[in-house]
C-alpha cells in the first residue's frame, strides 16, 4: 500500500499539487483558445473548421479546469477552518479514500448516492 497518511497536511499538498497542474495546463491551453484566423489563403476551409473545433474543445477544457480550480480553492478554505472532509448534507466524515479519489468532494458516498 502507498504511504499517504490522510492528514490535513497530506490533503492540502494533494489539493495544491492538483491546482498547480491545472494552472499550468491553463497557461498552455490559452494559446489553443485564441480566435481562429479566417485567412483562406493560409488555411483551407476544412483545416479552418478543424481548427475551430479544436478551439471550441480547448475552451471547454479550460472552462472545466477553471471550475475545478474554484472547487480546489473552496476545499483549501475548508481545510483552513477545520471543516474539510465533513459531508455538507449529513455532517458525517467523508471516507478518506473518497477524498483521495476526489479531494474536492463535499458529500459522503451515502449522500452522493441519494442525490443521484
Radius of gyration: 20 Å
Contiguous runs where pLDDT drops below 50 for at least 5 residues: none
Number of strands: 0
Percentage of residues assigned to helices: 55-70%
Give the count of helical stretches.
4
Strand fraction band? Answer: under 5%
Largest sheet: number of strands, sense, barrel closure = none
Number of domains: 2
Distance between the termini: 31 Å
Let me know the average pLDDT: 86
Question: N-to-C SSE series?
Answer: HHHH
- Summing up helix and strand content along with how strands pair, one would put the structural category as mainly alpha
**Any idea what the shape is?**
elongated
Describe the structure using short key phrases:
61% helix; elongated; 2 domains; mainly alpha; 0% strand; 116 residues; 4 helices
Account of the protein in words:
The model has no long low-confidence stretch (mean pLDDT 86). The chain folds into 2 domains: 1-84; 85-116, no CATH class. It has 116 residues and is an all-alpha fold. It is built from 4 helices and no strands. Helix 1 packs antiparallel against helix 2. The chain has helices at residues 8-29, 45-80, 96-101, 109-115.
Amino acid at each position: 500500500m502507498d504511504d499517504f497518511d490522510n492528514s490535513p497536511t497530506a490533503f492540502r499538498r494533494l489539493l495544491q499539487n492538483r491546482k498547480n497542474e491545472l494552472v499550468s495546463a491553463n497557461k498552455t491551453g490559452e494559446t489553443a483558445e485564441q480566435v481562429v484566423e479566417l485567412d483562406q489563403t493560409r488555411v483551407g476551409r476544412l483545416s479552418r473548421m478543424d481548427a475551430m473545433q479544436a478551439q471550441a474543445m480547448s475552451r471547454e477544457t479550460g472552462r472545466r479546469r477553471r471550475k475545478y480550480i474554484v472547487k480546489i480553492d473552496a476545499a483549501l478554505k475548508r481545510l483552513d477552518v477545520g471543516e474539510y472532509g465533513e459531508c455538507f448534507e449529513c455532517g458525517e466524515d467523508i471516507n478518506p479514500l473518497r477524498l483521495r479519489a476526489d479531494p474536492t468532494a463535499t458529500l459522503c458516498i451515502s449522500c452522493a448516492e441519494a442525490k443521484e
